[in-house]
Amino acid sequence: MLNHFHFLLRQDNDIPITSFMLGLGTSYAKYFNIKYGEVGSLFQDRFKAKLVEKDEYLLQLSRYIHRNPKEILLRTPGVELADYRWSSYPSYINKDNKDKNDIVDTSFVLNYFAKDDPRGDYRKFVEYDSKDEDLLAIGDLLLENDQPPTPGVGA
Description:
Radius of gyration: 17 Å
Helix content: 25-40%
Number of helices: 6
Distance between the termini: 21 Å
Order of helices and strands: HHHHHH
């Protein structure tokens, strides 16, 4: 994304996600500032997080995150969601990518889909062009700047 990013993280140890995000943000800001000769803060605000407690929310949030670059991709004819290089989506849908990205654990989300073709089913789930109303199911999980459009309002 041009001005933000999304992570769907699972905390499986006692180290808080806030510590991880602080370290990641600080390290990346240092790297960026050294590389481009800049100084100071790189990010405007502190990161925001939401706790996901329901399976439905987990799946819809995963779908939302993977569909998020769609507006950018519409500007480039012939480019699909699976082509967006800053996304984990290819790791979810391509059998060939499953072992190339050891940071992303696709099994947690893919276990919700059919055992015979979970990657294909996940791809259908993500790429299905649903109505904006479907995103309202996760509206309370989205951060204020990422709210889905209100159905029937705006263009």
